[in-house]
Every structure is written in structure tokens, then in C-alpha cells.
User: What shape does this take?
Amino acid sequence: MNWDQIFVLENAAWPVLLVDAQGVIRTASQGAKAVFGADLATTYLAALWANANSETATQFLAQSAQRPRAGETQVILRVKGGVETSFHVLTAPWARDRQKYLLLQFLPAGVRPSEEAQSPATVSKVHAAEMQAHKQKLDCALQLTRTVALDFNNALTSVLVHTSHVLDQMEANHPWRNSLVEAEKAAEKAAEIANDLAAFSRQEKDARAQQAGNLNNLLRRTIDLFQKQNTAGNITWHADFEKHPFTANFDEAKLQQALIKILENAMQALWIDGGRIDVTCRNLILREPTRDQNISLAPGHYLCVEIKDDGCGIPPEALPRVFEPFFTTKHGHRGLGLAWVYGIISNHGGQVTISSTPGAGTSVRLYLPATRRIVKDAQHSKDELRGTETILMVDDEDLLLTMGQMVLSSFGYRVLTANGGEKALNLLAQEKKPVDLIITDLVMPNMSGRELIEHVRRRSPDTKIIYSSGFVRPSADDEGNYLQKPFTSSQLLHKVRQVLAESD
Assistant: This one.
């Protein structure tokens, strides 16, 4: 490599790394420093490597570093801030100072070079511009949403606190009471919107550890939720799953959120006239790079989930924009659904594509990296989730308490419920011996979950705790005892068993 080539490499605006046979980064472009951080020299590539990477990608890069070669694959790396991001990586051998190195060039997931520009040393200006524009658009949308949600929540908190305070002091027959009640309802609705905005803006920061699992089980549970909602019975469901599916690494709660968003759209398309929704899950092995509509898939193992309806479809002019934050063709909607789906699937190292024909329906396909490894089906290990311990569940939502009591008691647990911190303390005072486990919401009126636990710890310091919330994030110390809302019955049972099994 001559000095001109070194200068071009180091000053490239797109991410390029030069790695030696031991996996140490020897040279990084300006674009790589901007994406991954400034201090890359002598850093091991493994420091950027995410656990969610497929075995295929890991083996590919390990072999390529030992014997530099030209190739391409899909990888997930940690960018600045610790966020795991999917990239399409192109590799090529490179000689420098009589040593062999591996050159890696990173493109946004789903973007591949044209046939005329397969060399990692030459990215087209079009791809560089696309990458920069995509990053700027997403960063801008997330920052704007984060700022608006924060300011909105602060203002709404003041409105709700003052309104509720006045209502508490006001007599029941006061002529202004009804107006204040309506104002409080409107503020609560606005708070729901603000929470949605906040959740969307922090989706990458909320990325949690992913675990190997059987995707069929999650699909079945999610479909069951929607079948129960379709009380009119005018929607026909058809599920067809791979008998022996590959294993994928996923965050069950997050991935279920993505599936729920897609199924909600499908049901809305069929709400008036009814129709059919097909959900399929297939193993997919790619020997060569493959394109599917607007995405590119590297060789490897995948699970392909397709959700298809025969509803009204999407207008052709709207289809290219469906994943853009805040874009919507539906009156009264916020345009976050499919953008949310895109973010969740990307954080799993996967890709999503959508096709639609007006009047004929819409198809959404999810591609998740997978392995051939078999994970024990959760449906076959119910006995392991049973217990006889006493559990106190505390939440200000009565529906959640009813659900929790139903699920846990059906698995043998003795369950107490309280819809607030003070009631929980009263129940504990009446118990002859300490309960084995407390599951508490973090955000409740009058007494928060943390305040409740502080009281409990004074009386019974060894009581085991599970914190739960859909908004507040856990501290580092609470991470292992945290249950993210919304959660499934399976997640609840597994978390309960996990915490109870931990030694004191």
C-alpha cells in the first residue's frame, strides 16, 4: 500500500477498517471514527462485536482475518453510545509493509454496491450519500422526538397534578367539576401519546440482551391475542410454521411489539369488510447474496416471517415512505408503527420489507439471522415453571393484577395482590411470615415501587423483588430483577422462577 492509498483510506468519509491477522484494528477511516468512536487504533475488532451476530458472520470474519479474502456478509456492531447496529460488510485482502491485512468496508444494512463497484476500496458517491442521509434523518427524528416527549411530559405532569389536586379539593356537585374531569381525561390521553413518542425515541437505547428461542412459540402467543380481539369473527386466520425452525436470538418483548404493530395494521385493513390474515415462518438458507425487493441479504441462515392480509392495500405513492418516522396515511395515527418495527428488527440484525397492491392486500416480511441450533420448546417445560411460593403483586392497574394472579396461581403459586404501595404494606403486616417474592410496578401514585421496597427492606431485607415498568429504566443493580412491560405470561413465569432460584 503506498502513501496515497493510505491517505485515501484514512480520510474516507465512510467506515473502513484495516485489521491484522490477530483481529487488531491498525487503521481506521475518518468515517469509521465518526461511527464507532475516535480511539480505534490498536483496538480489537471483537470490542465492537455484538452478541447478536450469527455464527455464520462470526466464522466468516474469523477465517477472513486469518486468510484475508474478498467476500461479504451481514454483521452487527456496537457504534458510539453502545447501540448495536446492523451493517453490510465487504472484505478484501490488503498488503502493507510486507504484511497481509483484511480491509473491511461497512455499508448500512440493506445497501449493497452495484456490480461495477464490488471492491471494498471503492464505494460510490451515491452509497456514501445514502448512508449519510439515512443517518442524519434517523438521528434528527429521534432527537426531535426525544426533546418533544420530554417537554411534553413535563408540561402534562404539571397539568395532571394541578387538575387532580383541584378535583380532590372540589365538592362533588361543583358546577365546574365536569369540565375539570374532561380536562383531566384529555391530559391523560395526551400523556399516552407522549409515552409512545418517548418509547419510540429511546428504542435503540432500550436494546436489551437477546436470548436464543423458538420463534414459533412467540408467533402463536401473539396471534392468540388478536384472535381473542376479533369478536365479530369476520377475519380468518391461517398460520403455517416451520416444523423444526432454526433458532434465532431475540428480545421476546421487543420482537412481540414489532409483531403486534404489523398485525394491528393487518386487522385495521380488514376491520370493516373482514378477510384473511396469513402468518408463516420458514427456514431460509442463502448460499449467495440475495435481493428481495428493496433489501439485500448476505449468505447465511435466516428465519423468514411473513404476515399477509387481503385488505385494502397501500397506495403506490405511499409505499416507499412507510418506514419513515411520523409518516402516515391514516387519520388520527402518529406514523410510528412501522418505523418502530424497522428499528426493532434492525436492532436484531434483521431486515424488513413490505409489498402491497391496492385492493388486494399487503405483505410484510421479516428476515432474522438464525442458526441450526435447536432450543428446547418452552411448551415442553411447563413443570419447571411451577412453584408453591407466596408472591405479592403490586400495580395500580387492576387488569394487570387480575392477569398476574390468574397466570401465577395456575402454576401453583399463592398470589396476593395490591393496587398501591400502602395497601401492599398493610397486606404484608397481616401475613404471619414474609412473602417469598414481591413484583411491583415502579411508577404508581402516592407511593412508588422503590419507596415500597425501601419500607419492605426495613422489615424483611431478604425478600426477593422483581421491578416492572413500561417507561422507567432499571438501574444497573436492578437489571437482573427487571421485567419490561409489556410482558407475556411466559416471560412473567420465567422471570419469577429465575429470581426465586437465585441464592441469597
In short: The chain has a mean pLDDT of 77. The chain has four domains: 3-120, 135-201, 211-371, 381-501.
